[in-house]
Amino acid sequence: MKQLMTALAQGLTAPVYIFYGDESYLLEQAVAKLTAVVAPDSWNIEVFYGDECAPAAVAEAAREGAMFGGRRLVIVRNTPWLSRKKAAKKGGGEEGSGTEEKAEQQGYDLEPLLEYVAAPNPDAVLLLTVRGNIDNTRKLVKEIKSVGRVVQFAALKDAERESWLRDYLRAAGKSASRQALAYIAVNSGGSLLQLKNEADKLLLYCGEAGEISLDDAEAVSSHSALAGVFKLTDKVAAREGAAAVELLHQLLKQGEAAQMIMALLATQYRNMLALKDMREHGFRSAEAVSRLGVNPYAGEKALTAAAAYSKRQLLRALQILLAADHAAKNGGGHIEQLLETAILRICCR
Fold it and tell me: What's 11's DSSP letter?
């Protein structure tokens, strides 16, 4: 993405693009930048939706000249012609298919687009966007790679999310502690748009203050499921059963799914066990967290909570959670009640 944005900043464009991936926020930023460079005037932009148009119509639109001079930008959103499809076998079941023949069987004649890509209009830019992954074995993808650019917008990892957040806050004239950055990054869900929304709330909350602390971050993002699980783990580690159950009820009342709470709680206990074992084998705390590959804030919380347990007790806690999960999935009771009982049993270690 950096190479793309650098080229666009210099006014350099390709005749055809594919933008794909799971990080829609970054993808839309790139679409906006490409639009500003190629067709700042809206009358030179035409937008299609891939599940509502034929490839031939897109190729025809891309061949048209721009109004009042300049260049023309043709965008196809959510293009279905480039994703990996599954075709049914004759004897039942499914098998993966990435061929143009299969695309044509689904009603897409890609030949007009292949012909266009072979000789694109020099006064137009064609952009195809795809949610998720594309099939790199398809002829159309290969042809576009040879004459244009294919850019992936993958979901950011923890360290990348923190770096993005740091830069976003810095652009707003704020600085944040490492703990605050890690806390917001881990509690804002998987999408960058969610992270941006949390950052915007944090900026509003802090007002004129230039420094953002962990206390500020916790005040803004204290109601996420993961933040609740961290607090829940703290209460259980302190053997405060009543407080832990009350916190569980609060999470359920605010709409968090019991199954998700159980999964997050089990993940945290697995992290606690792994980190405790690594510390016993001589790893420093920061090194253990890094090697385990967890968010620094989540790792620090796990290390702190793990100090209240022996390895045997952590194994027992995981067994209790596993038994509750198995019972819930096999008609052994309501998951909310099973989870509550499991929490109280762990408190009585």
Answer: T
